[in-house]
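@channel sequence for tomorrow's demo:
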Amino acid sequence: MPRVTLIHPCLGRRAGERRGLRTWQMQPLWVAALAASTPREVELRFYDDRLEKIPFDEPTDLVGISVETYTARRAYQIASEYRRRGVPVAMGGIHATLCPTEVAEYAECVVTGEAEQTWPRLVDDFRHGRLERFYRPNGGAFPTGWRYDRSVLHGKRYLPIKLIEFGRGCRLTCEFCAVQTAFHSTYLQRPVDYVIAEVAATAANGDRAKLIFFVDDNLACEAGRLKEFLRALIPLRVRWVGQAGINVAHDPELLDLIVRSGCRCLLIGFESLQPANLREMGKPINEAHGGIERAVGELRRFRVPVYGTFVFGCDADTPDDFQSTVEFSVAHGFLLAAFAHLMPFPGTPLYLRLARECRLLHESWWLDPQYAYNTVAFQPRHLSPQELRRHCLAARREFFSWPSMLRRSLAAGPQQRNFWTVNLLHRVELGLRDGHPLGDQTWTRPLLRAQ
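structure tokens (generated this afternoon):
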């Protein structure tokens, strides 16, 4: 019986820390997806580097690691530990899809794209001694039987939020987005009845009070299918949060279904109040149908709690834009808001443009030992990197200040308890990740590269 170990890397650890950051730690859905597609005769184990110490000396035959850009350095450290012990490592995830050649330097094989399509073949190849260097999916729609096995996650202390996937990818072409780059601006969707059955099973198992997070990067890629899904969701009486494009605000029928189906918060990427920035980002959809102001008005009219996200560092941004964006978010009573700077993720159109313009300050910032979380990795047009970082932090502090929270609470209506819970949690965590290292600072060995 082959023994396979799956690892979810943490962001990193400061010297002296025993565990990674303990903020907003939800179940890693990729583990449940791979567990469901792992052959039954395989002995499967899983360790979450954010929550527990990895037992590197525990016998295992193959290790699988999912890599995000922010966790790449830590993932390579973990891979090096296993490979020094003679254990082969397979790596996948969005960073592996964006940078397969780099990832291949630290693993025996690399999985790009949808791992569920290739994982069973990879395991079978390993068992027969014919492991390939790269595994790529054939493309196409979700397999009919695509399900998730969460039993491997039991016993670990995650937030009481159930993650469910309706679809993957996004059809928008935002310049800065790693998702559209990895998925080539496509959207794959599970059958509605499969997702509804999964939600119904959650309620039947006594998890009715548990919040559901539909993890799609953009739930509204197909409005017709989303409406079908929400109509089926209404009788289940669940509470859910999700992410969607601004186009939902211009469809009254869809907004009504969103509210009636139990939505407690909808994250929408407004990105910028400056039309020039939206055009630079490749996001003209945010200017359509009257723009952001009208969209926010419709969301307020239907009482949809909004988590508005904004990014700064575009060429038209000035110091005044931070304050006006915070004031806009407070005035419209957003439940939550995020104020972040642009991140040039590898392979994205933004990264390639900044590289051509010689404005990258760290070519591979995710591997640079001097790079820390929230550091600006490029040279903005009208601000210094330090100013951009400082203004973003100041915007977050102002939005989660007591006067702002008191004013915004008036828009919360009967959801006061939910409003104060999530806002106080965000207030406590202000700046907690700022300056956090990528990778374990106590790990001093060189990364082990593939031969």
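heads up for whoever presents: The first helix runs from residue 29 to 36.
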